[in-house]
Amino acid sequence: MLEVKGLTGGYGNKAVLDSVSFDVHKGELFGILGPNGSGKTTLLSMLSGVLDYKVGSIRIRGRDLKEYSAKQLAQVIAVLPQHSSLAFSYTVKETVSLGRYAHQTGWFHSWTSEDEVIVQRVMKQTGVADFQDLHFERLSGGERQRVLLAQALAQEPEILFLDEPTNHLDLSYQKELLDLMRKMAKELELTVISIFHDLNLAGLYCDRLMLLEKGQIQVINVPNEVLQQERIQEVYRTTIEKHPHPALPKPQMFIVPEKHVCDFAPLEIDETYLTVGNEIIQLNSPIPLRTMSSGVTGSGTGWHQHFVNRHVHRDYNYEDHFAEMADFLKTHGFEPQETVGMMTAVFLDTVAFKFLRDADFSVFIIVTAGVGNAIDASLADQHSWISNPGTINTWIFVNGHLAEEAFIHSIVTATEAKVKALHDLRVLDKVTNTVATGTSTDSILIAAAQRGKALQYAGTITPLGKLISRGVYDCTVEAIKKNRKRIEEL
Ligand SMILES: Nc1ncnc2c1ncn2[C@@H]1O[C@H](COP(=O)(O)OP(=O)(O)OP(=O)(O)O)[C@@H](O)[C@H]1O
Question: Whose CA is closest to atom 17 on ligand 1?
């Protein structure tokens, strides 16, 4: 649909673009990225015939751009510029109708019913039909943007050029505009070429991205390839982190603000932050901690400041235990969004905790262990779904800076230590009469201050893994013994 070869040029003697070559296919959503001043708008101006070029070629539908008359070009391409103002005062509908100009013929341009149908359709698509009789200059920036998009679509172009299309739009219209672009690209084979400053939106919506750097193409590829952490850091000269989108196989880049001295102040989570009561065990951190957990609230990965292990009756049974737990936390002064919350049927005074220190980092481990529901994982298929009360809740606070993989290693290491504790205490699976490996509802939390020593690994043989192994083993043994004693006393 569009072929660019060796495009070089700029303004007067100032060369902005240097040997730019690429193709865009029909029906493709193609994103142009690059830092300020890298030449994105200059390229778009050349592609849309606004800015002349001396070296290289641009071919649209196999024909050289320079062979098109202005009107012919307007029948094929439409442009939604970044900043727009109108010289005259038009209503919204009149503004959109100007898009039909390229399709009108003869000296006396007559307005056909087809023109009317198209204008009404594009006004609906862009959400501006409701205010079609208002004057353009009375509109907000976002509303104007949508009116100009409607005008561009009224042209019924084959290629739509967009310069920062979501600039003035609120969140829902950003999504709607880009959803519409993608729909039109896929269903009507509209070719969309758009400049983006928002790398995440570009990554979410575009089929391919082209990254410009100082007037040259740094890379053209699918979003996952272009949006590499090191590359973006280098080209944009800033610190960012790349993470997967939570719902889609797409990359997302996060800005990391510069840290201040207070962000590095040493923090050691230990017993002083812990309170053990009859109804809850709570640990309140002075700062949010990076967490990975299987709590009833705060599960998955996140940042949490409060940690609650709540005693519930053996017969606790709510259909929506997530909502019930959230209500419980609220009535006890905890914000559920900021709290990792777990439940246990054991008496909370049977808790075991231990602080362990290495040269330049430390861990604080807290375990409650009910084993009435102990299961041998290798024979789990012999169990029915109905479970008895009893669960092992393991909390591991790390005073260090954990890498993503260290969170996973920590869970593996802690699980191995727990299994060994059950083995050594000969905790039995009552159904199979074999040694249990855990209970059916065990829960775990890894929470790290993300300050101090960088800890890349937490396998059993690493310094962190050794502390976790020792601490989880000792605490699990102690908690099970205390719990057994407590039950004997009843
Ligand atoms: N009309 C002009 N006359 C002379 N130089 C210009 C003109 N317009 C842009 N430039 C220069 O060309 C270079 C590229 O500008 P361009 O607007 O294409 O970059 P961009 O990648 O779109 O930047 P931004 O992200 O800031 O919009 C810049 O150095 C800019 O100063």
Answer: 41
Q: Which two tokens stand for residue 420?
A: 């060994």
CA of 292 to the centre of ligand 1 (A): 45
Gap between the Cα atoms of 429 and 456, Å rounded: 36
With the most atoms of ligand 1 within 8 angstroms of its CB, the residue from 14, 16, 51, 164 to mutate is 16
Residue nearest to atom 29 of ligand 1 (CA): 37
Lowest-confidence segment of 15-24, 248-257, 289-298, 422-431 by average pLDDT:
248-257
Residue 366 DSSP class: E
Q: Report yes or no: 425 and 480 within 8 Å, Cβ to Cβ.
A: yes
Rounded mean pLDDT, 442-469: 96
CA of 46 to the centre of ligand 1 (A): 12
Nearest atom of ligand 1 to the alpha carbon of 82: 27
pLDDT of residue 32: 97
Q: In the chain, what are the domains?
A: 2-255 (3.40.50.300), 263-489 (3.60.70)
ipTM (interface predicted TM): 0.97
CA-CA distance, 24 to 203, in Å (whole number)? 17
Q: Buried b vs exposed e over 144-177: b needs ≥16 C-beta within 10 Å?
A: bbbbbbbbbbbbbbbbbbbbbbbbbbeeebbebb
- As a whole number of angstroms, the distance between CA 254 and CA 251 comes to 10
Per DSSP bridges, beta strands 159-163 and 77-80 are: parallel
User: Nearest residue CA, atom 6 of ligand 1?
Assistant: 11
Q: pLDDT tens, 201-256?
A: 999 999 999 999 999 999 999 999 999 999 999 999 998 989 889 888 888 999 88
Q: Give the residue, out of 11, 43, 196, with the most ligand 1 atoms within 8 A of its beta carbon, to mutate for a pocket test.
A: 11
Query: Tokens 């012999």 correspond to what residue?
Result: 382
DSSP class per residue in 82-131:
SS---SS--BHHHHHHGGGGGG--SSS----HHHHHHHHHHHHHTT-GGG
Query: How would you class 273 by CB atoms within 10 Å of its CB: exposed for 0-12, middle for 13-18, buried for 19 or more?
Result: middle
Q: Tell me the backbone φ, ψ of residue 48, rounded to 5 degrees.
A: -95, 10
| pLDDT score for 99 | 84
Note the pLDDT tens digit of each residue in 371-418.
988 999 999 988 887 655 679 999 999 999 999 999 999 999 999 999
| Beta carbons of 169 and 124 less than 8 angstroms apart | no
